[in-house]
Amino acid sequence: MPKCNVILSTQLHGLIQIFSFDLVDHCDVCDCAFPDNATNRRKHNFGLVHINNKKRHYDWFKDPNDFINEQMNKPVCRRYMHSGYCEYKLDCRYGHIKLDKKTGNPIFPEELLEWLHAKTLEQQQQEQSHSQQIKETKREPSYKYKLPSGWKVKDLPPSLKPPPLGQDYDWSRVGTWG
Ligand SMILES: [Zn+2]
Ligand SMILES: [Zn+2]
Q1: Which of 120, 128, 153, 178 would suit a FRET pair with 99, their CA atoms being 20 to 30 Å apart?
Q2: What is the distance between the alpha carbons of residues 137 and 144, in angstroms, rounded to a whole number?
Q3: Where are the zinc fingers (C3H1-type) (predicted)?
Q4: Which protein residues have a CB closer than 5 Å to ligand 2 (ion)?
Q5: Both 91 and 111 in a single domain?
């Protein structure tokens, strides 16, 4: 290959890199970015990391009881039952829930307990912000009082006049003359 061709191709390559710099695909599920092209997208979308993240993303919106049932219905993970540890945690194709030999009660693995704990926390936060919103909308409205016809605010005795503006006065829950 002639030398100039090599230079041209590296220059072109650089140019393409510059032009494609902004064309970045972002995966919200994985919170990662990669240069946007069909190969990368396919590679990403069919990659185990993305598939697991996506599953986890959707699992998060499941009812906790459904999620637990799903975990219980998986075939038993031999690795976990044998060693008490399996790196795949909630992503494992197999189940990590043990049954207590005496009581028959399920024993949840740590990752499931963590999941449930995080879920409860999120629910509590949502309930809190919800009740906060209700409180805010319930805040007493400020009332408007109608003056008898012909009456003007400036003619009222000082005790009935609104406090002068600009002075440190709490104007919430204050009635005004309409
Ligand atoms: Zn992804
Ligand atoms: Zn496992």
Answers
A1: 120
A2: 18
A3: 71-99
A4: 77, 80, 86, 88, 92, 94
A5: yes
Q: Residue 89 and residue 30: Cα distance in Å, rounded? A: 18
101 and 112 in a single domain? The answer is yes
Domain finish residue from 113, 130, 147 = 130
Q: How many domains does the chain have?
A: 2
Cut 0.70: pTM above it: no
Tell how far the Cα of 95 is from the centroid of ligand 2, in angstroms: 6
Residue 76 DSSP class: B
Task: Render pLDDT for 93-143 as a digit per residue (tens, 0 to 9).
Answer: 999 999 999 999 999 999 999 999 999 999 999 999 998 888 887 766 666
Which residues span the domain enclosing 91? 61-130
